[in-house]
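Hello K.,

You asked for the raw outputs rather than the summary table, so here they are, unedited. I folded two proteins back to back in the same session to keep the settings identical. This is the first:
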Amino acid sequence: MLTIIVLALAGFAAGAVNAIAGGGTILSFPALVWAGVPPIMANATATFAALPGYIGSAWAYRSDIDGDGRPSPARIVGVAVLGGLLGALLLLVTPEELFSGVVPWLLLVATVTFAAGPMLVRHLVRTGRSLSEIAALALVLAVCIYGGYFNGGLGILLLAAFGIIGMTNLHRMNGLKNLISAALSSVSVLAYSIAGLIDWSALLVVGLSCAIGGYAGAVLARRIHNTAFLRVIIVAIGLAMTVTFFARSYG
C-alpha cells in the first residue's frame, strides 16, 4: 500500500509539473526505482506514463504550433520520431549496470538544465541567434535522441534548443515542445513495449495519477503567473535524488 501511495503521489506531481513547467519525469523516475523497478524499466515506464499528458498539451497548443517559422512542424516532428527511435534503441542495447552508472549523471544534467532553463531560454531569445535549417534540425535530433534514451529534462532542453535556433514566440515554442515530446515518446514507448521494458502494474498507477495530475496542473497553470517556488522545490528534489543515485552507484 505504501508503494502504491508513493507511486500515485509521484505520478500526480509529475503530471502537474509537466503541465505547469516541464521536467516531471525527474519525480516519477526515482519513485519507480524506489519501488523496486529496475532503472531501465523505470525509465521506460516513466516515459510511457508521461505520454498522455504530452498528447493533451500538444492538442491544447495546436493553434500556436502552425506558423511561418522554420524548420516547419512537419520536418521537426519527422526528426523527433527518428531521434526518439534512435534513443530508444540505444537504451535497449545499454547494459543494466552501465545505465545504472549513467543515471546519476543524467539526473544531474536534467536537474541543472531544469534549474537554468528559463534563464537560458530568455538569454537566447534576447540575443536573437539563429541557425541554418540543417543545423537546427541536427540540434533537435540530438536533443530527441537524448529524450528517447532518458526522458528527464527533455522539455527544458527542447526549449533551449528552440531558443538557439532563433524562435521567439514562446507559445509556439511550448506547443512544439509538447508535440515533439509526444511524437518521440510514442515511438520510444512502442520500442520499449516490444522489448518488454514496461512495468504494466506500475504504469497503471503512475500513468493514471499522472493523467489526473496533468489535468489539475493545466487548471492550476492558468492561475499561476510565477512558478519560481515550484521550480525551487523540483530542483531540490532533483538534487536530492541525484545525490542518492550517486551514493547508490558509486558509494
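The second followed immediately with the same parameters:
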Amino acid sequence: MFRKFRPAAATMAVASLIALSACGSNETADEGGIAEAQAVATVPPPAGKEWSEVAAVTPEGGIVEGNPDAPIKLVEYASHTCGHCAEFSEQASDAIRSKYVNSGRVSYEIRNQIHDPIDLTFAVLARCAGPEAFHPLSEQGWANLEAMFTTIQANNAQFQAASQATGAARFDAIASAAGLYDFFAQRGISRDQARSCLAKTDTATKIAENSEKQSEELNVTGTPTFFINGKNVGTQSWASLEPMLQRAGAR
C-alpha cells in the first residue's frame, strides 16, 4: 500500500524534486561480476516489426520491450521523478533500443521503484495506452522532468492541497498540479482517458506494493538500479553498463 501523503511531506517533496536530489547509490566501479560469455547471434523480429515495438507486462509488474526469449535480460528499477534516471535515459535509450533490443539479443524491462506521489501518479498514467507505449512515455517524461518540476513549483499551493485528498481524488489533483494531464494529452492520452486510469486505484496500489516488496527482496537501494540476467549490478551510468551487456554476449 502506498504511504499516506502528508502536508509536510508535500512541501519537502517539492523542494527535493526541484533540486533534482540524488536518487541512486554510488556507481559500481567494477564490471558487476558479469562473466564474459560468447557473443550472442541476432534474432530476426516478427514480420513488419522491430523488436522494440514488442512489449508486455511482466509477472513482476514491470514493462518489458523486445524479444521475450532474448538470452540477455536487462532490468532497470527506475523512478519517474529521479534525476539520475533522466540522465541515464538521455544517454542510453536510443542506443539500448537500436543497438541491443532491436538485435533480438537483449530485452529491456523497466520496473518502478516509487519515491513520491508524483512518481506513482506518472507510473499509472504511463500505463494508460498499453505496454507498447510505456517505454516511450517514460523516456519523454524524463526528458520533460525539469519542466514538470517548474510546473509543480508554480502550482505549489495546488500541489499541497492534493495532500488533503484521498484515493482517486488525490491522484487527480496531483496530475493537475504537475501538468501531467497536458503532458499526456499531447501524446494521445486524453484527459478523460487519463482520469479513468487514475480512478482505478488498485493499479497504483499494486505498483506501490511491487516497489516496496521487490526493493526489499532484491536489495534495490536507489535508482536507477540494474539487473543483467537476474544479477544485481547496482547503479550504473550508460558508460559503465554497456560493457557489462557486451560481456554478457551482446556484441
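The longest helix spans residues 83-100.

Happy to rerun anything if the numbers look odd on your end.

Regards,
P.
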